[in-house]
AsnC family transcriptional regulator (Thermococcus pacificus), 79 residues
Amino acid sequence: MMEVFVLVVVKPGHEEEVYNALSGHERIKEIYRVYGEYDLILRVEVENVEALDRFHDEVLRKLKNIEMTETLIASSYRG
């Protein structure tokens, strides 16, 4: 299982619409509205990179009011 964080920029005025569209999706474990450069942060769990590709293609890219995303794959590095 992979854990990723997706930083999302939404077209102005559509933040609640996108938040509601993503809330409750089975892959999204947490979703936060945030201040700053990004509008939303998603914590997503997927099985592998192929499942991450599908999540991006089938979920995020279908929402026309998402302007940009940045995906961060969590490391298992414990230091």
Observations:
- The chain is about 25% helix and 40% strand.
- The mean pLDDT is 96.
- The longest strand covers residues 2-10.
